[in-house]
Amino acid sequence: MDTQQVSVPARSAPAVRGGGSPTSGIRHINTRQTSRFTIIGNHLAQHRELSLLAIGLSTYIQSLPAGARIGIKTLAERFPESEARIAAALRELEAHGYLSRTRERLPDGRVVTRTCSYNQPTGTAQRHLAPAPAPAPAPTPAPKPRRQAPAPTPTPTPPPPPLPQPRNPLPQYLRAATALLTDLHLHAAEITLTEKDVVLLAPAAATWFERGATPAVLRHALTHDLPHPLRRPAKLLRHRLTALLPPPPTPDHPTVPLQNCDRCDRAFRSSTPGDCRECAADRHRLPPVSAQG
Question: Quick one: average pLDDT of 143-165?
């Protein structure tokens, strides 16, 4: 029998083959997971407002077992990103309902941070999914241009008041203010300042010490009743340092100067330099050293 001749040219392959595999774009090669896997919703994986770091960080947190530590320092040791970038990503997740952090006081007086991770946040998280492509609308006749009213001129925002400045910027005041601002994240994890923020805010904090405030009073004023989430910690501290500044001392009640402990360099108030109260008590409790013959 002669070979059949085909004179009709073959049709081009369709964009999607019979098996459903596309001829262009991403192609998924999936393997069924039976152990050690985490289910992540597309509302997180395809979120349109979260950064890529925040999406990855939420995925990692949801894969951890209950009770795992996810503090900023712990995450910075696990990943190459800095503490500042990780703190910003955590604030993103809080703002969009994927994470919540609350501070609670235990019966023994210790303050701990309770962290909750949500794989399905409440509210309007679903509206951030990438929309499905809509069919092109039918062409409509162009409307006649209308005369638009001029846009209203926005009212300019007044500049913030200047930061307080000490009258006599003593070195011990600036040193104590820098140390207090640098360690604020140990008392309130939401407050993470950059080196530039500390240098800018230190003179204002030193003004509080010049007016008689103790480090404990200033720390409480800066960390008490913080908003959640706290998006701009440096801006909040600037406002509190200015708005809550105590009045200057009167001649009848002069300010006891601030000293730095000779042993631990901790700031304390005293008319004479020397040791702070804790170091002085430890020194008196030590047994006398006997001379060796």
Answer: 79
